[in-house]
Amino acid sequence: MSLLIGLVFLTACNKADLPTYWLCKGSSTQRLTSLSGQVQETYHGQDSLMLEIWGSKIYQFVQPALTGKYYQCPKSSAALADEPMLHFQMANCDSVADLRFTRNGELNQSNGKLNIKEMRLSGDHIIQTEGSYQCDSLGHTFNFADINDQKP
Fold this sequence. Notes:
- The protein is mainly β.
- It has one domain.
- The protein has helices spanning 2-12, 144-150, and strands spanning 20-34, 39-54, 57-61, 68-72, 85-89, 101-108, 113-122, 125-139.
- The chain has an eight-stranded antiparallel β-barrel.
- The protein is globular and about 55 Å long.
């Protein structure tokens, strides 16, 4: 009986329903500017990050400055159905953008190139972060050793 129950659970598991993981390494730049556009401080860094793609949601973790839950945006009617680009943003793609905070990204699933951007207002300053990464697909599982090996 327990074998039958186990078989039912195994056959009910569809790989298409499992999350996929992308491990990425690259660099980011963060700029602090005044509201008039004068750059006051700039920071550069080598970063690792991981994307978890599950259904229409994308979660980024490992890189603290860009950590969060993103929503996969539908392809525009002008885009080809088989386009390898995955567009995502922090706010729901159908919602009106909050001009005080935006964060979005684009992953080319064919070559692993990821670009991610953030802009937020903080008092009388604008903080902008831009990152460019090279990602490797890990499939449906990952090992924490992979993340630790990516640390600069």
